[in-house]
Every structure is written in C-alpha cells, then in structure tokens.
Design a protein that fits this description.
CATH architecture: 3-Layer(aba) Sandwich
Number of domains: 1
Distance between the termini: 31 Å
CATH topology: Rossmann fold
CATH superfamily: HAD superfamily/HAD-like
Number of strands: 8
Strand order of the largest sheet: 3-2-1-6-7-8
Structural class: alpha/beta
Largest sheet: 6 strands, parallel
Strand content: 15-25%
Number of helices: 10
C-alpha cells in the first residue's frame, strides 16, 4: 500500500503556507502587498467557490526572492510552527505505515521548500508539492509546471503513479478538504481527516473512513 497524505489540516493543524508567510513577513523577505489577495481567496475557498488558479496568480507577485532566504525561513517555520502542530494521530499513521515497509509521501498544494523539513522529519522522499521556478538563485514569478490544487492535484498524482507503475487501487489518500475529492475518488482507499462539511457529507455517502485528530506534538 502507498500512503499519500495531504498536509494542511490533515498532518498539520493549520495551513503550512500560513505558518510560513507569518514568519516570512517578520523576516522581511515577503511583504503583505505581495500576498494581499490571499484573504479573499481563503473566503472564496470557504464558500466553496475557489479560484483553481489562485496559486499561479499569487506566485507572479513573488518574483525576485532569494532561494536561500526561502529555505532559511522554511527551516525556522518548521521548528517554530509546523513541527509543534503536527497531529499526533497523523504522525502515528505515517510511522506505522513506514514500520510495515509501506511507502509514504505528501501531496500538497503547499510549496516544496515549506514541506521539505517535514519530509526530513518523517524520512519521506519524493512528495508532490508546488515548485517555484528560479533563475540565478532568485524566484522568477512562475511555477515549474502547474499548482497542485483541486483537480490538478489528482492529475499530478496520476502522473506520479504512472511514472512508477503504481495502481490506483494500491494507494490510500488522506485529506481534510472538498477540493481533494477528485483524488480521493481516484484512490483505492480514501480517508477523510478532520473533514470540512462538504467532504464529510461525501465521505458518509460513500462509506469512506473518517478520522478526527486534535492532539499535536507540541501539546
């Protein structure tokens, strides 16, 4: 079995990007003016009216940031915000799967540099995450490929499975969000973790397992 975990609200209590941006603004590598559209995008998401291309649009305003600064702040973010807020239940699922020799990866709409320390913490390699494009060590304002939000996460996971000759029925996907329903429906086993109302209704209708985590490592 291949275990694929969403990250935000599934493995980590809040959104990893929110944790990162709070510290990035304090470190003055990103300004609020560059991300001022995000509160509206969050509202649209909560209203089930998400802009599936909002990540691409936001990234265009993040041109000219040093990769070294992103990596440095990501490590600070992990130690101060992400690691203490990892759900103990999710951590146990990951470690139990690894103890049985089963592969675990993350599939997230967050950025690879943000989740890299989380990968190292769990000894995970090869996760699916958004990647910024760089030129001479600076962000260009573009992504490498496309973002992994909604249907596009399913596409990325399908491509990954095909590349490694993995059958969908041999995968188990864990997520909290209605935007991940396409990948949940595609995977062999689907688990709703702390699901939003839309996903909860879907999970109950289709008989998917529902898990609820509250305790975190920092408790």
């Amino acid at each position: 079995m291949i275990h694929i975990f969403d990250v935000d609200h599934t493995v980590v209590r809040k959104t990893s990007t929110e944790y990162f941006l709070n510290i990035a603004m304090k470190e003055k590598i990103i300004s609020f003016s560059q991300i001022k559209s995000l509160p509206l995008e969050w509202l649209k998401y909560k209203l089930a009216l998400p802009d599936v291309d909002f990540i691409e649009k936001t990234v265009k305003k993040l041109k000219g940031i040093k990769k070294d600064d992103l990596d440095r702040v990501s490590q600070i973010c992990f130690e101060k915000r992400i690691k203490p807020n990892v759900y103990t239940g999710a951590a146990q699922l990951i470690r139990d799967a690894q103890a049985k020799g089963e592969k675990v990866i993350f599939a997230t709409s967050s950025f690879d540099f943000i989740i890299k320390p989380l990968e190292h913490f769990f000894n995970i390699k090869g996760s699916l995450a958004c990647q910024l494009e760089y030129s001479d060590g600076m962000t260009t304002g573009n992504l490498v490929g496309f973002s992994f939000f909604g249907q596009k996460k399913k596409t990325a996971a399908q491509n990954w499975m095909e590349k490694y000759s993995i059958r969908a029925e041999d995968t188990c996907f864990y997520s909290d969000s209605y935007t991940d329903i396409p990948l949940l429906e595609y995977s062999g086993t689907s688990v709703a973790v702390n699901p939003d109302n839309i996903l909860k209704r879907k999970a109950k209708k289709l008989g998917w397992k529902i898990l609820r985590f509250t305790d975190v490592l920092g408790n």
